[in-house]
């Protein structure tokens, strides 16, 4: 079975993102910043999804989620690699994310960046709750 494919159908991905705890509202229409969506399917259907976007000219991993029952089987890693490759394909030298599981990304060479050094890729960067009662990490990876 060919597990990974690119898709334009956002709704099922948005449901998986929401169900996985990401701040995503299920919708038929992907956000304007989203440029590529991939889905991973297994016998039960959608098992993982990844959203790559461009924000203010910067390549971003916008969303990544894997269905709970198949986590830690390598699906996230493979979807993440697609987003990183897409940044390379576009001639980018970096890819960014704002996320809540920094340890996950660190093992793949991502590094945390202080808010003041990050481009304006997320509303988190100007939010008053940042590091008050919400603690996302801003991260980047150099891709060449
Ligand atoms: C984070 C997430 C996408 C990881 O997907 P996954 O398919 O389980 O990850 P993988 O199987 O590719 O894991 C690769 C490695 O990371 C480790 N890992 C998995 N989740 C981890 C986490 N939350 N923190 C640190 N390491 C983690 C795995 O144990 C594995 O290590 P190994 O290679 O030594 O065995 C998945 O747990 C998920 O959907 N979480 C909820 C949504 C979310 O938080 N998304 C990220 C938003 S920033």
Helix content: 10-25%
The strands making up the biggest β-sheet line up spatially as: 1-2-3-4
The rounded Rg comes to 15 Å
CATH architecture: 3-Layer(aba) Sandwich
Explain the overall architecture.
- The chain is α+β, with helices and mostly antiparallel strands and 144 residues long.
- The protein has a single domain (4-142), classed as Gcn5-related N-acetyltransferase (GNAT) (Aminopeptidase), CATH 3.40.630.
- 21% of the residues lie in helices and 33% in strands.
- The chain has 3 helices and 7 strands; from the N terminus they run E-H-E-E-E-H-E-H-E-E.
- It has helices at 10-19, 75-89, 102-106; strands at residues 4-7, 34-42, 45-55, 58-66, 94-99, 111-112, 137-142.
- It is globular and about 45 Å long.
- The relative contact order is 0.15.
- The model has no long low-confidence stretch (mean pLDDT 93).
Features:
globular; 4-stranded antiparallel β-sheet; 144 residues; binds coenzyme A; alpha+beta; Aminopeptidase
In short:
With 144 residues, this protein is α+β, with helices and mostly antiparallel strands. Helix content is 21%, strand content 33%.
